[in-house]
Amino acid sequence: MVCPKSRSSKAAQEPGPKAGPVKERLHKLMARGGLGSRRACEQMILDGLVSVNGQVVSKLPVLVDPKGDRIIVEGQLLTKTAGVSGARRVRPEKLVYYLLNKPKGVICTNRERTDQREVNPKRLRAIDLMPGVRQRLVSAGRLDVASRGLLIMTNDGDLVNRLSHPRYGVSKTYRLRIDGYLRACDIERLKKGLWLGKNRPGGKDAQPAGAASVKVVQRDRKRSVLEIVLREGRNRQVRRMMARLGYKVRELTRIKIGPLSIKSLPTGAYRKLTSRELAKLRSAGK
Hints:
The protein has 3 domains: 24-89, Structural Genomics Hypothetical 15.5 Kd Protein In mrcA-pckA Intergenic Region, Chain A, CATH 3.10.290.10; 93-168 and 263-286, Alpha-Beta Plaits (2-Layer Sandwich), CATH 3.30.70.580; 171-196 and 208-257, 2-Layer Sandwich (Alpha-Beta Plaits), CATH 3.30.70.1560. It is 21% helix and 24% strand. The protein is built from 8 helices and 16 strands. The protein has helices at 7-13, 26-32, 38-46, 115-119, 157-164, 184-192, 237-244, 275-282, and strands at 24-25, 50-52, 55-57, 63-64, 71-73, 76-77, 88-89, 97-102, 138-139, 148-154, 172-179, 213-219, 223-230, 249-257, 260-261, 270-272. The strands form 3 sheets. Strands 8, 9, 10, 11, 12, 13, 14, 15 and 16 form a 9-stranded mixed beta sheet that branches. The chain has a 5-stranded mixed beta sheet with strand order 3-2-5-6-7. Strands 1-4 form a two-stranded antiparallel sheet. A hairpin with a 2-residue loop joins β5 (71-73) and β6 (76-77). The termini are far apart.
């Protein structure tokens, strides 16, 4: 006698619901494709330079299907789907890594037009100092226009994120000259941390901005020269901390990022990182 199939066995044979496409954040996909850092790719989206399936996207976050969606970045096709009229396929660039000693007066943005460039169209960008490099480069950790010193220039979005995000704790060392005598109590305040601007106690994930270390190089009644090491990268952080304590910064130079320094690299010059330097940089931080 043949027993009838149970409902449970029949249900086991029936196919389950078909899994949907695996989606990921658009700016991460763009960064992996060599179009810049994650932050730079986010800004490209906000600027309306990216479309998905024919629709311009300008708000974050944007989730896409890398295998099925047609993603156009500044007229170039990012995905591997069928070609779009007038678009060229964006292929991942060869990853390159450079040290650049940024002069004062040079800006770090890659945008063709910014507020600063509208004020002074002749103002140089960091990438303008590297005419022999064809890849689209971004700086790992920016410096303001009045500051000078070390930049890591690369098209490796993952490395830029590692060097820039505070959770990795990659050190940045700055040498600065300030007006006046830096008091011992203010050195301790720099190490303990200062509340800056809207970053106030009680806010979400709020914590003061502080220095990992402070070294006094020279000090007298009229001026002080010091080296500050940070493990975070808030906007104009060194200048804002010193202003919070009442000191005017006259010169500011970033001399190191992680284990790499600008020693023997002239102002305005750049060079490729060695494989050994790159390995050290990738292992830097927490």
